[in-house]
Amino acid sequence: MGRPRQSYDGVVLTAPVSVPYERYSIETAHWWIARALREVLKRADLPLKDLDGFSVASFTLFPDTAVGLTQHLGLCPRWLDHIPMGGASGVVALRRAARAVQAGDADIVACVAGDTNQIDSFRQLLSSFSRFAMDASYPYGYGGPNANFALLTDRYMHEFGATRADFGRICVAQRANALRYPAAIMKKPLTLDDYLAARPIADPIALFDCVMPVAGAEAFMVMTEDEAIRRNLPFARIAGTIERHNAFADDPVQLRGGWAVDVDELYATAKCAPQDMDLVQTYDDYPVISMMQIEDLGFCDKGAAPDFLRDKDLTVTGDFPHNTNGGQLSAGQAGAAGGFIGLVEAIRQVTGQAGPTQVADAAKALVSGFGMINYDRGLCSSAAILEGAAP
Amino acid sequence: MTALQKLATGLAAGTIRVVDLTHTLDPDFPVIVLPPEFGQCARFRMEEVSAYDHRGPAWKWHNISMSEHTGTHFDAPSHWISGRDVPLGSVDEIPPERFVGSVCVIDCSDQAEADADFLLNPGHIAEWEATHGQIPPGAWVLMRTDWSKRSGAAYLNMHEEGPHSPGPAAEAIRFLVEQRDITGFGTETVGTDAGQGMHLSPPYPAHYILHGAGKYGLQCLANLSELPPTGAILMAAPLKIKNGTGSPLRVLAMVET
Amino acid sequence: MTDALQPPPKKNPQTRTVSPTRPPERRSRATLGLSAAAAEGRFALQVCADCQTVQYPPRDACRSCLSPDLPWRDVSPDGALLAETTVRTSPNLYFRERAPWRTGLVRLDAGPVVICHVHGDCAPRGPVRLWNLLDRAGQAVLLAVPQERMPRMEDDPQLRQMTSDPKHRRVLITDARHPAVPALIKALKAAGAVEIYVGEPETWRPSPGRAALAEMGVDLQPLDVTDTGSVQRLAAEYGGKTDILINTARFLRPGGVLARGDTAFARDEIEVNYLGLMRLAQAFGPAMCARTADGVNSAVAWVNILSADALSNAPDYGCFGASNAAALALSQSLRAEFRGAGLRVMNVLTGPTDDAWYQPLPPPKVGPAALARAIVDGLQRGLEDVCCGDVARDMHERFRRDPKVLECERTMAGDQP
């Protein structure tokens, strides 16, 4: 609508960092964020005092925000952001930071997401997640999004004829990818039979449809291309990005997300098409959501993802590399870092730094985010197309 | 030996026995029942204040509440309209010597057993005096019916037309007051009057005549069967309640064995 | 169709009684409007006063025009089940202990899409009706049920968690002298109550109804709510098997402050109507609160019968009304104190009852059968606030509309001729 989006020319993403996850941690979100921040600064060879932009995403910082972290971590940024968008926060942080760098409000922005997972902290987080959840889903035993996604999955299967095995193939491929990714939490091979026989959680959702809450942190840096070259950092360019919130509010059940509103503009800005992507990183807290993204981001028609994926190999070496480090389903969901995991892995991929999970000749990656089950559906959606470039 | 020394010796030797004529104050003990639109006699109630606990670590005590006319109790002249203007008519004004005196016990237990509405009349008193001598002035006269041995619903013996229990006829009370100048009249029932006393003339004659003449009433007495017809000393001292019309009592009698 | 709820086995004395757990209680202020409706058994949602959009979840501004004027209105509870799931595990202890648990997504004919509990009799993707019920936290939850009543649907385990159904439960009626007691016993028996204990004060008085009650097969026990010892004695023996307590003790005399001229009856009214409730709660409350998760015959409800005058008083029965207002206020404290255990306080507000003390008043009056029906119906529906009879309903409606206007109406002295 209206004015064309401006490009992100001259702004790049560098220094992808993943702090290895832990199932439970006695440490705090502050601790995990500090570890990630320290690592990106080290990669960029940047003294702490010279960091002038900081963006953070976290659920477990309470009572602190990004503001408290500046004092806690000894930062003095001239640009500060706090992204409360869960699974959409990686791409959204990227968008905000890139514009700030582009406009000269900051030279280098460290974007960090991190959360701890202490015994019982997940349960406590759920009870105060959102007002609508407190009022209208938590009282029904919706301890977390399992039941919400069970409803979506139930309706999706009914509308489009998807089967449990269709979802299972996504999970099985991601586990295969995770076996290559040293930091993944789930290291046991998974077969389709294992998937189908798993303990039911909230029908039709079973154990391997669900992510494992863990502690961890992810980070990357946004700076000018010149700055990256000066620091000898491999970088990725931003070909296009979108975000959208509370899309299709009148759909009775969420079978499509906000990507479908903006997808044409995404590819138009990036001057490419879905089939140009060398890998896809969807937000995968449940496989049905990955299917929805594959549809809404134009790889196939609405409802056709089960068919589309049936013929695809989603592993690192396959014809449709997807969630190449195992995604949250196999690497674990570290709170808001779950909104970063795909993006950070995509930066590694298009800059040739992915190591054991590297997709051969990966040049273009699609990353999408999805977050915040405020009540009956995820409200935030985001996506970005990254292009690799060697320094 | 003085009289009191003799008394002390007798009490110590057991030749003088103290008989308790009192019912235990108990929340379940009946009280007089009046038509419900009238004010009602409060039942005995007891609330624990503390019991060696956080409400009072080293002591136990209760708050109690009741009517002046609950349990074994004393009726002062001011209790009845006929006695409203009697001098020294309330319990705090009555001279203390009136609370102690000789006692004549008229045994009506056989008659009461045969007829719950039995009325004591002057003829019965004459019969008693023929055996035990004339009732002396200033004596307490107690009407023994063994009613105190009843409990629960049998005590009030309420029927649809009201309670049925024995009591004095108007003439008998008039005789005791006018001819014998007694101190007071006592019963084992819930009132000094018969259960159906409201239908006599005057209604409730014992209350009306006794209190109008400055005499006292005792009711809900117990253990009258342990008293001799004559010769015992009664002690019935009400609490010293300002303008009180009555009082719960501990009634004791001294009996020579 | 729902399987018939089986009577509980006798309690194993060697097993520990399950500690009560509760579903989440916290709600936004806006959403408490739903709980207020559920307390009365109504299905109401916010409806925008400006554009008529029906809202859910409850909010502070209209989702289509931002109007802040969102009054609660009764709306159609009908809709269709779009999707469902059977939850088999939950981080919330209450649900974990009650898994599996059927929930779903319902699109209401009125517009909104609602996450709700789903009754076992609902057909997948079929038409449903939503009931607005209080859960064991005392807060509203919505339950989808079939649009047609089904046999034994009250036995559905999820529904049973939200009601105070007397079926298979043991009931204490505190005062045999209340004129509605025989009708109440009959209604409770018809509703499946297994044992009924009836308190009898002042057994030394004649009790004309005693023989009839004894013939009804109830267990008459001495109980006088004005006597702490008596209340404690019964609670010591029966507190652990009282699943529903219905307080029928009442002391009633006509008259306001000046007409009486003394405080004697008022004291009796306070002793019975207010302190009696307090004594019962202090004696029976702890045992009942400890047994709210005790299986099929868990302790579930506490019932007060109160005069509607408690809402707004008038001098004809002014002192009695005041004692009932005190009891109503006490019941609110009690609600809060019982809520942690999930024990529900149900207040039944009644207009003048058809008995001796209201004899001079013109009809309409509440007969014993109507009062009994209101109590049992309220228990079966798990209500918290019940109005019995036209007078109480009228008073409640006027109270809701404007308590001060009601007070003005009730306190007019009348013009001189």
Give structural notes.
Chain A contains 14 helices and 11 strands. With 391 residues, chain A is α/β, with parallel strands linked by helices. By secondary structure, chain B is of the alpha/beta class. Chain B is globular, with a radius of gyration of 19 Å. The model of chain B has no long low-confidence stretch (mean pLDDT 96). With 417 residues, chain C is of the alpha/beta class. A 7-stranded parallel sheet of chain C has the order 11-10-9-12-13-14-15, sandwiched between helices. A 5-stranded mixed beta barrel of chain C has the order 4-5-6-8-7. Chain C has 2 domains: 32-160, no CATH class; 170-410, 3-Layer(aba) Sandwich (Rossmann fold). Chain C is built from 12 helices and 15 strands. At the A-C interface, helix 4, helix 5, helix 6 and strand 5 of A face strand 4, strand 5 and strand 6 of C.
End-to-end Cα distance of chain A: 36 Å
State which percent range the strand residues of chain A make up. Answer: 15-25%
Read across the widest sheet of chain C, the strand sequence of neighbours is 11-10-9-12-13-14-15
List unreliable stretches of 5+ residues of chain C: none
Radius of gyration of chain A: 19 Å
Mean pLDDT of chain A: 95
- General form of chain A: globular
Looking across the biggest beta sheet of chain A, what order are the strands in?
3-2-4-7-1-8-11-10-9
CATH architecture of the largest domain in chain C: 3-Layer(aba) Sandwich
Order of helices and strands of chain C: HEEEEHEEEEHEHEHEHEHHEHEHEHH
Structural class of chain C: alpha/beta
CA-CA gap between termini of chain C: 67 Å
- Percent of residues in helices of chain A: 25-40%
Tell me the CATH architecture of the largest domain in chain A: 3-Layer(aba) Sandwich
CATH class of the largest domain in chain A, anyone? Alpha Beta
Shape, principal axes of CA atoms of chain C? globular
| Main beta-sheet annotation of chain A | 9 strands, mixed
Note poorly predicted spans of chain A.
Answer: none
Say which CATH homologous superfamily of the largest domain in chain A is assigned.
Thiolase/Chalcone synthase
